[in-house]
Every structure is written in structure tokens, then in C-alpha cells.
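Complex 332.
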Amino acid sequence: IAKIYTEKETSLDAMKGKRIAILGYGSQGRAWALNLRDSGLNVTVGLEREGKSWEQAKQDGFNPKRTEDAVKEADVIIFLVPDMAQRVVYREKVQPYLRERMDLVFAHGFNIHYRLIEPPNNVDVYMVAPKGPGPIVREFYVKGGGVPVLVAVHQNHSNKALEKALAIAKALGGTRAGAIETTFKEETETDLIGEQTILVGGVMELMKAAFETLVEMGYQPEVAYFETINELKMIVDLVYDKGFMGMLRSVSDTAKYGGFTVGKKVINEETRQRIREAAERVRSGKFAEEWIEEYGRGSPVLKKGMEDMDKSKEEEIGRRLKEIIERGRPKS
Ligand code: NDP
Ligand code: MG
Ligand code: MG
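Predicted structure with magnesium ion bound:
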């Protein structure tokens, strides 16, 4: 059974007085910098270049520094640049300034688990991985809540690595929900498997398949969009709030019966086999290898995916219906 830490059994003490450098000011970087600062910790934002992030950090009241300058003055280095950029940032801007007793902190285990970054033994290496997108990590914190986090320790030179991970988890708002103890291996593999098979890949393709099929069959795309894309949020919200039983109690008996009988035909044993195969590719390191190679070629597949989606029928209709969807959204 998983060990879950909550607000009461955690403390910020292990991070008090530490100089924390947050590298990157994107999805997670901004949320972490703001939440940690609001929790009373000493945060500096380190960036590679002047640009969008630099401007945003200044607007939010930070005084961003060049990565190496932030690193030189820090006790704790938090890697919140994209996973594929971390290896180079580490090699060029962190490793040369590493001192004994510094902490290297990650929000995802990719670079440590697949050994793209191999820190010396005399530093602590640990992880605080929010189980939600950066803007939500910020939004929940501001509203008094928190997104659950995973914590893990890879190297424990100080013997205090877990306490420090939990202090950061608390400052992020994570322990208001709960901080689950895990390993770099488990976090890395489950995160990749989850985003590929469900959260990003699976759900997106299922919505697209349903939407495009309805449109092909001659139904109005606006009607198809509301049915197969927009309404998914409401169903997922019900599962989120009340579990599957809560969701099922809220839909009609016709929907329950159709769901039980047809769902298993759409998502069948073959789909499960594909999920297993995707998971095996993650576990064997094959996926990591493929992604590193793609990144090395300038991410052509990723770029094409973004371009195709931007031009898709789904997005065209979504943009057209945005006004209606916004108008209907509950106020406050
Ligand atoms: P983002 O893509 O949002 O990070 C962008 C930031 O990194 C910007 O400040 C950007 O600066 C900078 N940056 C971009 N490219 C480079 C580069 N080549 N070298 C140096 N800096 C660069 O990252 P995420 O927040 O998505 O991810 C950060 C970490 O958090 C990852 O380990 C990820 O796996 C993990 N994570 C992310 C989640 C999410 O919700 N996105 C959820 C949980 C974990 P500029 O503006 O100048 O380009
Ligand atoms: Mg994730
Ligand atoms: Mg991820």
C-alpha cells in the first residue's frame, strides 16, 4: 500500500533558508516559482535567454537571471525546462558549478531514469512530480487547494532528501491533497504510459475517431462536436468528483446499458494488447530512444502533429463554437 503524506505530517523547515533556483518558466516553472514564493521560500528564476518566459517572469515580479548565474548562487536546482533540454542545460550550465550538498530536483524522472543525466554522488537527487498541468497547479494553490504530487528519492547524500522533497511538495500545495511516495522508475514509466495511452494519446484519438466518424456519416459537425468532444469534460468531471458510480447514476439507463454493452466492443482486448505494447516500449527504453532521436532531428513528427491538429476540422469547429461554450460556462 502506497505511503501518502498530508499537510499535517509535513513541514517547510527543510527548505527554509535555502536558495532555490527554478530553471525554466513555462507550464510548470511559472506555477512552481509563484507557489513556492507565496509559500515563503526563496526563489530565483534561471533562464537561458531573454524572450517570452523572461518577460513573463519579470511581469510576475521575479528578477530572472541567466541559468549559470542562478545556479552559482543556489543550494537547490529545480529542472523545469523541457525534458529533452535538461541534459544540455545540466551539462553546460549546472555540472560546472555543482558543489557538494547541492540538490537536483526534477518534476519528472525521464533524464535520471534513462541516465541522460548522471549526477555525482555528493549531491541529493529527488523528485516532486505534480499529477496535473502547470496552470492547474497554480490555480488550485491560489484557490486554497493543491494538485496531488509524487515524491521520490534517487540519491540521498544528506540523509534528508525525502524531507526536502516533502517540503517542496508542501510549498507547491501538493500535500493539501497528498504526496505519494514512489520511485523514479515508477513515476517515469507510469507518467509516459499514462500520457501516451490515455491522457493525451488515447483520449484525443478516441474523441477524434468518434467526431470524424459522425461527420463522415453526415451528421452536422457542430452537433458531433458537442457530443463527442465538449461533453466529455462533464462526464470526466463527474468521475473526478464522484467516481464511476457517481457518473453512472447521473446518466440515463439507456446510456448505462449502451455504455456497458458497446464500450467493450470499441475498447476491446486488442486495445488492451496495444496498451501493453506501449507500456513495454516505455519499460524497455525503446520509446525514450525514439523520442531522443526525433528531438535530435528537430522534432519533425511533433511539429507535424501540432500543425495537422491546428488545421483539423475538430479545431475549426471548436473555434467556431468557443463563444457558445464560453457563454454557457458558470460564472465564478
Ligand atoms: P515547458 O515546455 O513549459 O518549459 C518551457 C520553459 O523552458 C520556458 O521557460 C522555456 O524558455 C524553457 N526552454 C525551452 N526550451 C529550452 C531549451 N532548449 N533550453 C533551455 N530552456 C528551454 O516545460 P514543462 O513545464 O511542460 O515541463 C517541465 C518539466 O515538468 C518536465 O520535466 C516535464 O516532464 C515536467 N512536468 C510537466 C507537466 C506539465 O504540465 N507540462 C506535468 C508534470 C511534470 P523560453 O520561453 O525562453 O523558450
Ligand atoms: Mg504526467
Ligand atoms: Mg509527462
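The pocket of magnesium ion (ligand 3) is lined by residues 108, 191, 195 (CB under 6 Å).
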